[in-house]
Amino acid sequence: MDLPVPLQELVIGLDHVAIAVHSIAQARTLYEVGLGLTPAGEEHVPGQRVNVLMLMAGTQRIELVEPASEDSPITKFLATRGEGIHHLAWQVANLEATLEHLLAQGVRLIHSTAQAGAHGTRIAFVHPSSTGGVLMELVELPAADPKHHA
Predict the structure, then answer these.
(1) Nearest to 89 by CA among 67, 66, 69, 61
(2) Which DSSP string corresponds to 86-150?
(3) Backbone torsions φ then ψ of 132, nearest 5 degrees
(4) How many CA atoms lie within 13 A of 38 on its CB side?
(5) Is residue 146 included in any domain, yes or no?
(6) Does residue 30 form part of some domain?
(7) How confident is the chain (150 residues) per 10-residue block, as mean pLDDT?
(8) Position 79 in a domain
(9) I need a surface site. Which of 2, 90, 111, 137 has the fewest CB within 10 A?
(10) pLDDT tens-digit map of 52-94
(11) Domain span at 63
């Protein structure tokens, strides 16, 4: 299936795979020592009420996400599903244009406007009811960071 030209120009590729964990401190041993992934930045994201640790597996980014409060969306996810893959994140060239395009296609969004993400990114989430059950994040990089390797 060919993507519409406007969307081909907006979606750049996979940004990261996010894994929900109860504790970054406990999980990082497996990922850093066991798998040899390289830490690439840890950060608290107040708007999402999470702490994240970005890890590099070659050129692929893996994000460990832990709840930073009882009302974090990750707290509910862990309670109902346990630890595991939380979402796929797509890097986009223009977040507003991508959101407008998806809304015009009838795609259900969790965020219809940009939110502050980790490492200076702007993000929005697409509801899994519109994506075959997969939670998806759209990520627009900061203008000064075209490589995005924290």
Answers:
(1) 61
(2) EEEEEEES-HHHHHHHHHHTT--BS-SS-EE-GGG-EEEEE-GGGTTT--EEEEE--TT-SS---
(3) 70, 30
(4) 8
(5) no
(6) yes
(7) 56 94 97 96 94 96 97 96 97 94 93 92 95 94 65
(8) yes
(9) 2
(10) 999 999 999 999 999 999 999 999 999 999 999 999 999 999 9
(11) 5-140
